[in-house]
Each structure stands twice: as structure tokens, then as C-alpha cells.
């Protein structure tokens, strides 16, 4: 994943029952790929979660509960629960 410029936003929100977070960086790079990094704090299994989506339709999530999800944009997906 190649990152573009980041906005360094400090907006709060909630993610699927995982509690509040701060967006530490997000943006779209020159290839049209979007990324977003979120800080869920010290109580989360993965406090620095992120996701990205690519212009080819693929995307990847590293969730605050420690699980990951990847879709290759061709209909194939892989979910890995927290270790």
C-alpha cells in the first residue's frame, strides 16, 4: 500500500460496536487508493487499526478487535479472526 498525503484529522466516531476512535490519518494517493488509520486507544486488541481500498476494487481491513478482512476485488475474500 502506497500512502498519499494525509489529512491528520482528529474526528471521533464509532466503529461497529468497537467504541470510539480518533482518525489519525486518511486520504487518497495518486493511484486513487484510499486509506484510513484509526486509533481506538489502549483498551483495544489492535489500537491502531486501518483499512484501505484500491482502485481495482480490492480492500483490506485490520480491525480494532485484532481480526483482519481482505477482499481481492474479484469476489474472493478472507477473514482472519483475532489470534
UniProtKB/TrEMBL annotation:
Superkingdom assignment: Eukaryota
Region named Disordered: 1-83
Positions with biased composition (Low complexity): 1-33, 45-71
Amino acid composition bias (Polar residues), ranges on this chain: 74-83
Protein name stated in the entry: Uncharacterized protein
Organism: Didymosphaeria variabile
Amino acid at each position: 500500500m502506497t500512502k498519499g498525503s494525509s489529512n491528520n484529522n482528529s474526528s471521533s466516531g464509532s466503529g461497529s460496536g468497537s467504541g470510539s476512535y480518533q482518525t489519525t490519518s486518511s486520504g487518497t494517493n495518486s493511484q486513487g487508493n484510499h486509506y484510513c488509520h484509526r486509533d481506538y486507544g489502549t483498551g483495544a486488541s489492535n489500537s491502531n487499526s486501518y483499512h484501505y481500498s484500491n482502485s481495482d476494487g480490492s480492500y483490506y481491513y485490520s480491525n480494532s478487535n485484532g481480526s483482519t478482512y481482505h477482499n481481492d476485488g474479484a469476489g474472493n475474500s478472507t477473514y482472519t479472526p483475532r489470534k
